[in-house]
Amino acid sequence: MELENIVANTVLLKAREGGGGKRKGRSKKWREILRFPHISQCDELRRSLEEDYGSLCEKQPIGRLLFRQFCETRPELLRCIRFLDAVADYELSPDEKRKEMGEKIIRRFLSQKSPGFLPGISQSHISQCAENLRKSPCKDLFSGCLRPLREYLSRAPFAAYLGSMYFDRFLQWKYLERQSVTKDTFRQYRILGKGGFGEVCACQVRATGKMYACKKLEKKRIKKRKGEAMALNEKRILEKVNSRFVVSLAYAYETKDALCLVLTIMNGGDLKFHIYNMGSPGFEDERVVFYAAEICCGLQHLHREGIAYRDLKPENILLDDDGHIRISDLGLAIEIPEGETVRGRVGTVGYMAPEVIGDERYAFSPDWWGLGCLVYEMVAGRSPFRARKERAGREEVERRVREEQEPYSDEFSEDARALCEMLLTKDPRQRLGCGADGAAEVKRHPFFRSINFKRLEAGVTKPSFVPDVRRGGAGRRRAGGMIGPPRLTALSGPAAPGRVLQGRAGHRAVLHGERRQPGPNRQRLLRQVCHRQRLHPLAERDDRDGVLQGPQHLRAERDPLPGPGLEAAARAAQAQPAAEALPAPPGRLRHRHHHALPAAARRELAPRRG
């Protein structure tokens, strides 16, 4: 079984890295799969499309690219494109460089003496831009100039684009996009986790080589648990989401036995793992501000679409390979019509807002409460209303949420404490983010003074922490298309006699150096898999007793690879006293996976005489 795991992990890692070669994970038949139809086959599609400039040339990535290429063929339109690019760079520039860049834009595009002058913009708009630049170079300085420019592009240039070969190519792409998606569209890889309605596995698009997570909802389980409405609600909400801060739906298809949602794959682990398993609990201020800002942007997008998330907690915030986060698992999300409210006791104990616990009506206020809980936990290394590993019942935690004030330690800066107090206000009418401005009100808080939200939303801001997904940054796949860390981690490398590992559940396992050696064929295969691919066998968790299970006798001979899981296990090993290893009597006190028990445990369990 352990050999199968090693091979499955190796295949997945190779696929994630592009598979090697020039195709970068694509099928040998990728050209045939992506072959464009003859333009005559797109006539019906042309008639069915709504000829709207905003939809075809701004919102859709392929349409935006092709319209840009069309404009680059005409000098008068090329100036418009370059102006739009310059304004986009201005909006993403740091505050100290904004005035200089604004002056360059005015001289190049808004001055009548310049060869790049744009005649479609009125003199009043130009004068207003120059005046605002002298006073304060704000991010939206050129918004007054962009409106007439877009109106100009949406008329004659857009009509000419519709009759060009660039729009024909757009129709061909849309034709391919409308082809049916089946299980044969993807390569399926190992199972990454299991949930209430099915399992999650890694998958790869044959035509492009792009990796995703495939969440398979088994039809029998859905019907047995009467979860049809929940499954369809999750799919419908995922279809509306298009944000770099929320896990998005790429494809959806069905098989005979399952409904399949193909989602963004996140390889960096969940926030709970990084809070509690990477050194001392909690994060430094810079990292807290960055994650809180990205979560705020994700909530803003959901609320703009009329979606209340209702389950904000560290387990549902996932990191990608670059260290950016996404909100995941929209199973409890709900669409709320504008101006209306809903009622429902849903969420996770310790993160539910007082109005949810009290079964009152609400709109988006529980999400801002959840953000306050997350910021508190990232700073303090514990949730605001229950200490870590504290055995407090549901009723007690809910009483604290309704009645008690959360404690604050010296770890909180003045701005962090002020933000948490405003987000964790018991009355939703007084809570930060619940006013008319919504997320904009939260973004203006001094806690986020170091964040340029334009740059953040464009993906330009670099995270301060990047998970090492190749060397153990995350391992356990959670249900819902999300990846998380393993609950127990084994030390890689040669096993030292008498070394003790401490698991989360409090169980210990002693690793011994003397073990049955694998045969020569198995040794050769393991060397090929582990050494050439730089991969170590992954430990598995046994849910019955929490003890490490894994191929400890099949060790790679190289030095252990660094990673958060290894660091956590090493710290646990140092914290435990060395145990004396005694040979276990045959068939009596032997662990079922042949790990000898510690001496203290053997003495406690040994039969007593007389």
Keywords:
610 residues, alpha+beta, five-stranded antiparallel beta sheet, 15 strands, single chain
Task: Describe the protein's architecture and organization.
The strands form six sheets. The protein has a five-stranded antiparallel beta sheet. 41% of the residues lie in helices and 11% in strands. Helix 6 (75-92) runs antiparallel to helix 7 (95-109). With 610 residues, it is of the alpha+beta class. Residues 474-517, 530-598 and 601-605 have low confidence and may be disordered. It starts with a helix and ends in a 5-residue tail after the last helix. The protein has 24 helices and 15 strands. It catalyses: [G-protein-coupled receptor] + ATP = [G-protein-coupled receptor]-phosphate + ADP + H(+). Residues 468-494, 554-610 are annotated as: Disordered. Residues 564-582 have a biased composition (Low complexity). One of its GO terms (cellular component) is cytoplasm. Keywords: ATP-binding, Kinase, Nucleotide-binding, Phosphoprotein, Serine/threonine-protein kinase, Transferase.
